[in-house]
Amino acid sequence: MRTGSRQRGRRWVRVLVVLSLTVVAVAGACVAVSVWLFTDSTRGTGWSSEGPSSQVVEFTRVRPPGSASELRWAYQKGFQDDLAVLSFRLPPGEEAGFLAGLGITVRPSGKRPLDDLPRRGFQQAGAPDPGGAGALRDGSFLAEPLPGHSKRLSATVWLASEADGGTRAWVYAMDAP
What we know:
Layout: H1 2-42, H2 53-60, E1 69-76, E2 83-90, H3 95-102, E3 107-108, H4 116-125, E4 137-143, E5 152-161, E6 167-176
Antiparallel strand pairs: 1-2, 2-6, 3-4, 4-5, 5-6
C-alpha cells in the first residue's frame, strides 16, 4: 500500500508542478501582451517614413511632378486599412498641369477642419500643417485595388496657394471598402 500512496503522491506533485508552470506561463503571456499593447498605444502614431517614397507614390496614385520640392511622406500599415500621406510644393504655374494629370476637380474646402488622422500623418511626415495654410481647396478620387490589396483606394488632395504663386499639396489616401 505504501508504494501506491507514494505513486499517487508523486502524481499529485507532478500535476501541481505542471499546473503551477501553466499558470505562470499564462500570467507571463498576459503581462507581455499588456505591456506590448500599452507601449504600442503610447509610443507614437504607427506612421513610418522608412523605405522609399516611391511606395507611397504608388499607393496614393499621386505622382508629384519632377519640379515639385519639399516632398514629405509617411505610411501606416494598419490592421484593416493602410494609410498614406504625401506633401509637396509645386512651383508657380504647375498646379493646372498637376490637376489635369490626376483628372480631379478641386473646390473650396470652406471652414471644414481636417480630421485628426490625416493631420497626425502629415505631422509624422514633417509636412507643414494644412490647418495653418489658409484657404484650402480639395478634391478626391477612388481607384481600383493595387496588386496584393483587396480594397479600392480613396484619396483626398488638398491644395493651398502660396504667396509666391506656388501651391502646397497634401495627399491622404487609404484603402476603402
